[in-house]
Amino acid sequence: MCIRDRVLPPSKLGHEIFAKVDEEFILDDFNLKGLSSYIPNLRHAIYYILNYEVSDSEDDPAENEQDIAGAGKYAEMAYGLVHARYIQTPKGMKQMMMRYQKGVFGTCPRVYCEHQPLLPYGQLEVPGNSPVRFYCPRCQDLYAAQKSRHEDIDGAFFGPNFAHMFVVNYPLLSIKPKQNFAGTICGFKMHESSNNHPQKIVFDSATGSMKNLPRPKVEFADPLTVMKSTRKFITDIKPIPGE
Fold it and tell me: What angle do CA 234, 239, 242 make, to 5 degrees?
């Protein structure tokens, strides 16, 4: 049984969007740097993930039993935070590419993205702050989880760096939409200025009904008045002596 299946069994909701982190990667202390600030007794959590036995001689037996009992609680978080770092490596990206090509992360709900596969995205690196979102390389926007089993997965287990690093390594994924939506009326496109002065709807207490406030009037100068003013300005110009 691989490490992922031990910590996140196939019966675990959302299991399929996680990569299988190599044991060598977890054993490297450099890859665990800073995680102890989020996980009490990180060493026992890592031992639990790797299915290692903790020697009673290393610590006080009473404290050791208590730490081992709590290790299972933090094992999932430890695996998730290590996972966020692993998927930024070439091996991790290769695994995520396989899932991406199969559409495991879902597809973009935007019509003009034409079912573009999504990538998991965490808005923050600190766990317990926001759930996983899904990033579309085509329209470059974020979307909430489409499947209920992904709604409770911590976004920190994927982090804010992976999706962009993935697109940089696979530039062909970043394809702009062929077209964007534009509203029409009777087949004619709406001008950009059509929404500059939207009508406001207010409640009229006198009649007890809703009414539209008139749009602000735009006054234009009378062309005839402009011509007369221009003519008067020209006739008032005096010639310069000596010309």
Answer: 165
Greatest CA separation for the chain: 113
Cα–Cα distance measured from residue 123 to residue 116, given in angstroms and rounded to the nearest whole number? 21
Q: Is 202 helix (H, G, I), strand (E, B) or coil?
A: strand
Residue with tokens 């020209």: 234
Q: Strands 209-212 and 201-204, how do they pair?
A: antiparallel
Express each pLDDT in 193-214 by its tens digit: 666 555 556 656 666 665 666 6
Name the β-bridge partners of 120. 134
Pick the closest to residue 179 from 96, 80, 79, 110 (CA basis): 110
Pair of tokens at residue 188:
């004619």
- Joined together, the tokens standing for residue 239 give 């010639």
Q: Are strands 188-189 and 142-143 parallel, antiparallel or unpaired?
A: unpaired
Q: What's the residue count for the chain?
A: 243
When pLDDT is averaged across residues 87-106 and rounded to a whole number, the result is: 94
Measure Cα distances from 44 to 63, 73, 88, 111, 146 in Å.
Answer: 11, 11, 25, 48, 35
Nearest residue to 175 (alpha-carbon basis) of 241, 240, 120, 116: 116
Query: In this model, does residue 8 exceed pLDDT 80?
Result: no
The two three-digit tokens of residue 50, written as one number: 């790797």
Residue 162 · residue 84 · CB < 8 Å: yes
Q: What is the DSSP string of 116-147?
A: PBPEEE-S-SSTTS-B-EEE-TTT--EE--SS
Give, to the nearest 10 degrees, the angle between helix 162-169 and helix 90-102. Answer: 90
What's the pTM?
Answer: 0.70
